[in-house]
Amino acid sequence: MCFGKCARCIGYKLLILAFLCIVANILLYFPNGETRFASEHRLSKYVACLHGIIGGGILIFLPASVFIGLEHDNCCGCCGHENCGKSCAMLSSVLAAIIGILGSGYCFIISALGLSHGPYCLSAVEQNWVYPFTNSSGGYLLEHDKWSECREPRNIVEWNLTLFSILLVLGGIELILCSIQVVNGFLGGICGVCCNREEKYVC
């Protein structure tokens, strides 16, 4: 098994997921493509947490770039021994993976809270900007007839539900991939990178 190639494969997947997280988080700022709610600060407090931009995005780019460079990184060797240097590089990737776990975990948790708390909207019942579903503990997600209680932004429940769910799934996948790299990094560091150029490994 080539631990370096597996890490590189994980790295490329993380790059794609990080980009998607950033896009989803940005879209949360513009319900129905409108900018006025963001400028008036009338969006859910969890949108401002930037969990997709920072947690699922920027903090994932770092480990992703480290993982991608592992296949050919010999860490400048170790006392002239290339395999020792590669083992060093694989072990160092564990630290990058932990950063990825923290970032993706942040994205996952905030997304879950955003779904549970519900959107910030103009309530037809209270005639004011509130969190009308905050006490439902996420139960509103199954009660579609109550979604119309939010008058503005239009379709904000569906908008938040879709994007927070996407971020929840993406953050979860990133968390799993970074956890896999922790194991892969330890094994690669202990066993050494044992494949040569002629070996083929499908990740």
What does this structure look like?
The chain is mainly alpha-helical. The protein has five helices and three strands, in the order ααααβββα. The chain has helices at residues 3-28, 36-39, 51-68, 82-117, 156-191, and strands at 121-123, 129-130, 150-152. A three-stranded antiparallel sheet has the order 2-1-3, with no helix packed on it. It is elongated, with a radius of gyration of 21 Å. Residues 74-82 and 193-203 have low confidence and may be disordered.
Task: Please give a quick description of this structure.
The chain is mainly alpha-helical. Helix content is 59%, strand content 4%.
Task: Please give the structural blueprint.
Elements: H1 3-28, H2 36-39, H3 51-68, H4 82-117, E1 121-123, E2 129-130, E3 150-152, H5 156-191
Antiparallel strand pairs: 1-2, 1-3
Helix pairs in contact: 1-3, 1-5, 3-4, 3-5, 4-5
